């Protein structure tokens, strides 16, 4: 019987190797596009003067690295033409500003000049309702047996408000995002809700609420549906050509990917009991 096992294994191995064939898939490669990660976040209780914008390019499907864009000129201007320069940390593609002045409902314009192309985008810094409280429920989810964390806030009345919620869990690598509008709870107390059904005692959750514009809400709805909200953050190289609010003033067809967003932000950390 032992010999039969050995012979069978040899035949099976030979069969696998004889049927193995390497297939090279010729994927169409487009010219790299600029990707702009320009989320200006003003955390409640801070001056908001430290900000960062990151520039990369799209790359081939099989590439393991994301190329950074160095040597660009990056600045943001407010409605009274105050200019905030973003200076690159050498050879990183990360451009930082330590003198930014955030103002709620102020309009800002981003300009990026790279490789002879000028890209611009205009957005408004949106406020966010402060986080009021957190509640742990041990009978959540479809089964009624999952742990859920509800993070409550009081939505301002008589105005449209749009939110982005981010969840960082200690028991998983990925970040989770979703966006919401206050159409059905305008002026009332509402909450964001965790979406991790594997939470247990001792796990930590970081909950972050962003105030966002309606156009960014629409953009994120599309991007998250394409990306499947499967981790890594929606501000890395987009998985598909989802166009944001950046316009190439030099060559309209050579558009950039990414989005220029400005948000007031509130965040809390919670340890599961």
Helix and strand layout, with pairings?
Blueprint: H1 2-19, E1 34-43, E2 51-57, E3 73-78, E4 83-89, E5 94-97, E6 107-114, E7 117-124, E8 131-140, E9 146-154, E10 162-169, E11 175-181, E12 189-193, E13 204-212, H2 214-227, E14 247-248, E15 257-271
Parallel strand pairs: 1-15
Antiparallel strand pairs: 1-2, 2-5, 3-4, 3-6, 4-5, 6-7, 7-14, 8-9, 9-12, 10-11, 10-13, 13-15
Write a concise keyword list for the protein shown above.
15 strands; 273 residues; Immunoglobulin-like; single chain; 3-stranded antiparallel sheet; mainly beta; 2 domains; 12-stranded mixed sheet; 12% helix
Explain what the structure shows.
This protein is mainly beta. The chain folds into two domains: 34-127 and 235-265, Sandwich (Immunoglobulin-like); 131-210, Immunoglobulin-like. 12% of the residues lie in helices and 42% in strands. The chain is built from two helices and 15 strands. It has helices spanning 2-19, 214-227; strands at 34-43, 51-57, 73-78, 83-89, 94-97, 107-114, 117-124, 131-140, 146-154, 162-169, 175-181, 189-193, 204-212, 247-248, 257-271. The protein has a twelve-stranded mixed β-sheet with strand order 11-10-13-15-1-2-5-4-3-6-7-14, covered by helices on one side. A three-stranded antiparallel β-sheet has the order 8-9-12, with no helix packed on it. A hairpin with a 4-residue loop joins strand 4 (83-89) and strand 5 (94-97). The chain is globular, with a radius of gyration of 24 Å. It starts with a helix and ends with a strand.
């Amino acid at each position: 019987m032992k010999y039969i096992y050995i012979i069978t294994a040899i035949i099976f191995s030979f069969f696998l190797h004889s049927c193995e064939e390497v297939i090279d898939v010729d994927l169409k490669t487009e010219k790299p596009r600029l990707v702009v990660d320009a989320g200006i976040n003003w955390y409640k209780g801070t001056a908001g003067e430290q900000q960062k914008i990151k520039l990369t390019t799209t790359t081939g499907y099989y590439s393991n690295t994301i190329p950074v864009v160095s040597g660009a000129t990056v600045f943001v201007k407010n409605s009274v033409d105050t200019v905030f320069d973003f200076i690159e940390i050498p050879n990183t593609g990360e451009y930082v500003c330590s003198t930014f002045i955030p103002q709620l409902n102020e309009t800002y314009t981003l300009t990026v000049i790279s490789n002879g192309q000028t890209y611009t985008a205009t957005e408004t810094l949106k406020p966010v309702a402060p986080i009021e409280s957190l509640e742990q429920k041990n009978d959540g989810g479809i089964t009624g047996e999952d742990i859920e964390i509800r993070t409550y806030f009081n939505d301002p009345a008589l105005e449209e408000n749009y939110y982005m919620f981010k969840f960082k869990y200690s028991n998983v690598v990925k970040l989770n995002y979703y966006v919401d509008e206050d159409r059905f709870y305008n002026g009332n107390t509402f909450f964001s809700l965790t979406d991790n059904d594997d939470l247990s005692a001792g796990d930590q959750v970081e909950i972050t609420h962003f105030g966002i514009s309606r156009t960014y809400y629409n953009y994120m709805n599309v991007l998250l549906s394409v990306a499947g909200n499967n981790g890594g953050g929606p501000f890395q190289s987009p998985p598909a050509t989802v166009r944001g609010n950046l316009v190439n003033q030099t060559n309209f067809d050579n558009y950039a990917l990414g989005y220029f967003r400005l948000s007031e932000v509130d965040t809390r950390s919670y340890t599961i009991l």
